[in-house]
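hi! just following up on the protien thing from before. the input was this:
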Amino acid sequence: MRVDPNEFGYAGFHFSWGDHICGIFDDRSQQMEVMGAFIATGISAGQRCVWVGPRESGDALRSHLARIGGDLPTLEASSQLLIISKVDFYLHEGVFDPERCLELLGTLLEDSRRGGYSTMRIVCDASWLQRDRIVPELWESFQSRLTQGIARLPVVMVCQAERRQFSSSLIVAALRTHPIVILGDVVRQNPFYMSGSAASVESPDIM
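and the predicted 3d structure came back as:
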C-alpha cells in the first residue's frame, strides 16, 4: 500500500494525537474512500489500527484494503489491524454500555503498548445506532467523555455516520461533541463543536 505515513490520507489533512473526529458521509463508497485511506496510512506508518462496527462495514474495509494491496491475513494475524464487531465493543447483552466501552478502550491501549505500538488509530462505524435506537443524549454524553479522555493519549479516533441513516438528533449530538469534522470531501475544524457538551460529565480515566 503506497501511502504517505505523515499524512491523514485525505485532502492533505494533518491530525494530532488526541484528536476526536466526526466523519459524516453520503454513502459507503465515500466512507471507504476516506476511511480506507486513513487506515492504510496508519498501517504504512507501523501503527495499530482498529475498526469497530457492524459486520458489513468491516467486510467493506477488508475489501478496500485488499484492492489497494493490503496483506489482510498478515495484518490481522499480527493484530496490527483489529476489526471488532459493534457487539463486542459497544453492547453488553444487547444494551449500549458506555462504561464497558471506556474500559475496553483502555484495554486496547495497554495491549497496543505491550505489542510494541506506541500510537493507535481507531475508526468507529456508528451506523448501528439507528437500528438499536440509542437515546441521543446518552450518545452525546459518551462522545463528550471520549473527547476529553483521549485528548491526552497517543490515539486519534474517527466516529463515522452515514448522513441518510441518522436522525437529525443523532447528527446534532455528533457535531456537538467532536472538535474536527469530515463532511463528505471537506475536512475542517468543527464550528458546531461545543466544548464541554453534555457537560458536567467527568473525563474518563481511560489509562
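Residues 38 and 145 are 23 Å apart (CA to CA).
Confidence is low (pLDDT under 50) at residues 1-6, 198-204.
cheers
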